[in-house]
Amino acid sequence: MNILICGIGGQGVVYASKILARQALERGETVHTAETIGMAQRGGSVVSHVRIGDDCHSPLIPIGGADVIIGLEPAETVRNIAYLKHGGTVAVSTRGIAPTTGGDYDPEAMLTYLKGLDINLIIVDAEEVFRRDGSYRNLNVEMVNAIQNKIL
Question: Domain residues for 49?
Fold first, then answer.
């Protein structure tokens, strides 16, 4: 199982990958992880690769090799969609975060684009998480749960 987690620095991308890796290790499975971090600060792109199973011999998922993409931010999800294999699943948060460089950004346009693709799409309502918890801090865990409940 190849899982790519993407988002913005500060959203808990790396933490979400550690949750998945730890669970797989506790099941006795082989796990490889790696992070590719753009700007090493809040607001930069962060991608984490989680590879579970004995047939994985390197930590990085190849383009077209991800069974699952967990997108904590819509634009980052679109930016990384090439990693998804045919028939793969994407869980994406509705919460867009404007780039630190400024400019117009419409997260709904990203979600509309994803809806138009031939993929298994799970949309997680970030505002519902905020209403329930009073914060977006748990969104990464909610995204992991959304995937686990559907495919893992």
Answer: 2-150
